[in-house]
Sequence to fold (853 residues):
Amino acid sequence: MKSQSKLVRWTAATALLVMILAAGCARKPKTAQRGDIAEAAIASYVAPGDLDEYYVFYSGGQSGNVYVAGLPSMRHIATIPVFTPYPGNGYGFDKETKAMLGGFTWGDVHHPAISKTNGDYDGRWLFVNDNANNRMARIDLRDFKTRQIFGPMPNVSGNHGSTFVTNNTEYILGASRFSIPLPKGTYAPIEQYATKYKGVVSGMAVDPKTGEISMGWQILMPPFDWDLGAAGKGPSEGWAFWTCYNAERATGKLEVTSTQRDRDYIVVVNWREAEKAVKEGKTKMLGGVKVIDPKDTPGFVFLMPCSKSPHGVDVSPDGKYIIGSGKLQSITTVFNIDKIKLAIEKKDFTGDEDGIPVLKYEDVKDAEVNVGLGPLHTQFDDQGYAYTSLFIESAVAKWKLGTWEVVDKIPVSYNIGHLAAIEGDTMHPQGKYLIALNKLSHGRHLSVGPSQPESSQLIDITGEKMKLIYDAFTEPEPHYAQIIRASKLKPIEIYAKDENKNPNAIWDVKDASIVRNGNNVVVKMTAVRSSFEPNKVEVNQGDHVTIHLTNIEQTTDELHGFGLTDYNINIVIDPGETKTIEFVADKPGVFAYYCTNFCSALHQEMQGYLLVKPKGGAASAVNATPAPRNRKRVVAAAVPGGSNE
Amino acid sequence: MTESWLVKANRFFELPLQFRSRVLVLVAAVLLVPSFLFPLYQMTLYSNQFPDGLVLKIYSYTLEGGQTSNRDDLREINSLNHYIGMRPLLESDFSEFKWMPFALGAFVLLALRAIAFGKMSNLVDLVVLFLYFALFSFWSFGHRLYQYGHVLDPTAAIKVTPFTPPLFGTQQIANFTVNNYPGPATYLITASLVLMIAALVLSARQRA
Fold:
């Protein structure tokens, strides 16, 4: 008993000592990776009222969003919801966006791609991928709104190697990260993985006028895990590249089983030939679409050995070099497009994988650059330098194209994934800044508990030495980002009255109406400071209610919201915009609707009532309202996309 | 006595217009033509939210708010004015827009007539009518400003003391600094009127 209490006391004392030591450590300023403070402050400071010079479009990972920030301030400016309902601006609640989401409530956005003309960003559209539900989406950069969600795409499982656009946005590249038996819905035991499972790489067509995404071509691939992609430019224009891991065709614990061979591959596809093959009908139907099997239609798909488990593949601004790295190695390999073309011409192959010829590593490589441990992605500046992110080493290496000399290295906090330089994947990168998109922030911020944000570090790359100038933190979870000069974008700030072609739009409060047709009630409503018209809508329980709501303002930032209490509905309408909501008035009683987006001095007064007359007369209404049996229904309705119908 | 005065008057009206008077009347007529291109009156409303100012321009034939791809000033001014119960500024409420351009056109014709006929009586017709037109328009516009500032909806959310926006100058109304100034068209019309009077005086003095 006595010794036990002694033990307790000692333990407590030790614990206290550890805590004091730990606190002492924590109080120490984090001196790691800190440049000249005054210099950095000036470099990233954007005075009140001044504008940033560049837009950053961050992918939002599993949040399904895209984040927009300004650079060099690194200030978050807006969130663009894409694959996830976002009550902040009513996305996924109105008829149009709900239909676009198609019942899905999340997506996994990895790689934003700004549309290109002649290999440079043209600022028209931003495409993003959904790694989870195999979709692609188009954001119109005229109004920063998601305008199309394409998919789920047939034959694709885990659309990770996407979206990367070709030089003139002819195609958006995509790839199947997880090989599965095809077409989707087919069952095959995992033991038959090596033979019955298939991967796919694809290019989805883009309408040059509207940006509309449609089915392009798909190529059947061996059951590897198809990873990141890139489109060629200059001498490599017309070619597409994807890395892959698990050339072992292994299953189970991939961490081990897929890392046994020394080399995996980068696939080299002549997409103009793929385009031609589809036109000439050299395809077979799979999953409802025409698919090219390179075994049957050879001559434009080749495999290029790369250090094992590669991740990124990047093409230099001049299009001459294709850079790929094994993510467990300390070197990155520079392949040469001329050598690749020559080897293909000479048919100098070392074997094949399911009929796809394999090129010889020594034939196609130009150099191995000693960048450091765990190279993932490479971006470029305007001075002929390449910047490679090093995950394991937690650093960025700067090296010279041509001489292959590593000239500088900067540590980052911590474990960098992608990196983004200004227009750093185009034919004309602009140098100046680089963002390190780090996977771990390890408390370089005020503590917010165990769920920590990601870290985004701004690095000045104007000088010989890279300089860290700003730490920013983002919501989960940016993978890749693209940075574009702000002057390339000319967004609108209101929807001009003349542009609103919605047949249900009204522009005068006098035109507001409620029309009943059987059980359907159609309301045309206006929102303007500080009232809704009509401010009373009376329906019967069970009626199908449609509300077309027009914000008749024509002044920037005069947004109005429409939240309907207890009905799980909220939309936000921009100036000059019309949105439609539909729901079944299944709950009797009186419900308020109100403006959710603060608009004016009398915003709080901007409200109205939805009066739902109960089916069995007034008395039953009293009984029906708080009933617990309703709770289940409320929960069901709370799943966006699940709708209230 | 009266008779001789009438004779004098008759003689005066019969006077021929001098060449330089006719030139002045021609210039006066020409000045009226571009008055259609410019506003008669411009109001600019500045506030913290609108540092560049909401603009309202009144032409002889229409009412026009500043318009950019991102803002419709007339709609905005009406949206804001409804809080103090001011009548919305609607083009259809201004009957002046229907006759004013024709009146100005008529003065151009009357001016040409005076040049062609070349008699003092023609010029007197023109000046008297034009003066009447100018003074009536001035009064009517002032009256309208008074009406907009005084006939306020009693149910308005914000009760303000009835006010008269200045015809010429600056005034603080709630959170807005309102700048009211005549536009180029008003200056053109005034200049035209001055030239006509000058023409009249020149030809009248020839006898002396």
Q: What stands out?
A: Residues 16-32, 619-645 of chain A have pLDDT under 50 and may be disordered. Chain A touches chain B at residues 492-494, 496-497, 528-529, 553-556, 601-602 (CB under 8 Å).
